[in-house]
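Figure 3 (text version): structure tokens given as input.
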């Protein structure tokens, strides 16, 4: 169901000591009860973070999972494993995995299916490169990415999925889509998702910061954010979560 959601993607950052300091600081912060705040640390720290957030409103998520339930897949982590560690969400198909691990639209859809079957909410990422935007291909790229999800998942499964629009040209660059640009894409996504789209949570991701979060969240079709670097600073991440 559609709701306010802020997700912190720590990427390949963290240590035992820095994780404890960050989570301890976040547990002292306050934001609206209507906002779900999710932390996605590297998989090796999921157990530690699960313990640190046990008595808080913070929710645990993973950064990736395998499309397979088990087997000879060295280095992968399955849906049942992250479920056992307390994860309620998992990021799927982040642009960095699409680029560096060559993950296809089809594989990403299968990962979403694995997550849903395990009772975990997938956060499926879509977005275009700077060249694709400059060439006027933004909507065709996102349409293609969403089409595979729509054809793979049932209506019920699709409505259990969160979609994160992350313009690749705005990730870690300091550039951010204007609220109007982001809204336009989110509106198009809801239209493509048809009836399901009205019930789905749609996030924006791409250099989200405390000083632009409120403008982004004020847009009709943006329900929250997938936050990268700012999620590693408690004050900044808290300010984003408090921007609704």
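Below: residues designed for each position.
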């Amino acid at each position: 169901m559609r709701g306010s959601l802020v997700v912190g993607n720590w990427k390949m950052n963290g240590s035992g000591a820095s994780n404890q300091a960050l989570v301890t600081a976040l547990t002292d912060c306050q934001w609206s009860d209507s906002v779900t705040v999710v932390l996605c640390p590297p998989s090796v720290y999921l157990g530690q973070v699960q313990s640190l957030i046990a008595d808080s409103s913070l929710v645990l998520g993973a950064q990736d999972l395998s499309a397979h339930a088990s087997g000879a897949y060295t280095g992968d982590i399955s849906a049942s494993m992250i479920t056992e560690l307390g994860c309620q969400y998992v990021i799927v198909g982040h642009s960095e995995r699409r680029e560096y691990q060559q993950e296809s639209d089809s594989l990403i859809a299968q990962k979403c299916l694995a997550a849903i079957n395990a009772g975990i909410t997938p956060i499926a990422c879509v977005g275009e490169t700077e060249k694709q935007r400059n060439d006027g291909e933004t909507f065709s790229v996102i349409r293609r990415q969403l089409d595979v999800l729509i054809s793979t998942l049932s209506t019920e499964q699709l409505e259990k999925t969160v979609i994160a629009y992350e313009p690749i040209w705005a990730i870690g660059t300091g550039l951010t889509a204007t609220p109007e640009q982001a809204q336009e894409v989110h509106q198009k996504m809801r239209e493509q998702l048809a009836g399901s789209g009205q019930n789905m949570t749609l996030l924006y991701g791409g250099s989200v910061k405390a000083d632009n979060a409120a403008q982004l969240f004020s847009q009709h079709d943006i329900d929250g954010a997938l936050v990268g670097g700012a999620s590693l600073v408690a004050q900044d991440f808290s300010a984003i979560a408090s921007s609704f």
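The chain has one domain: 4-241.
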